[in-house]
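Blinded run. Sample ID left blank on purpose so nobody reads anything into the name before looking at the predicted structure. Input follows.
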Amino acid sequence: MSTAHTRVRRRVSPKVRARGKVTVALEDDLDGGPADETVRFGFDGTEYEIDLSAKNARAFRKKLTPFLKHARKASRGPARRTARTSAGRQER
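Blinded prediction complete.
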């Protein structure tokens, strides 16, 4: 029994081979318009990114300001484990 192998040739158009310029346009995740920046933030242990226009980024920061004034920065280290007490180590 012989097995026939077929070879598939792909043709790549000259347009694909040519070097090109790729432009990435950010879209505001709130209103669908053009975005000016990507804002990164964390909440409840989860990191987020959102693309916003300058106007929406200012509004976002303005809404957070009262909370940030009273907050403290957390370390980026690993989460601490709860300490074991001597009672917890005793055999039962």
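Unblinding after everyone has recorded impressions. The domain at 24-71 is CATH 3.30.60.230 (Wheat Germ Agglutinin (Isolectin 2); domain 1).
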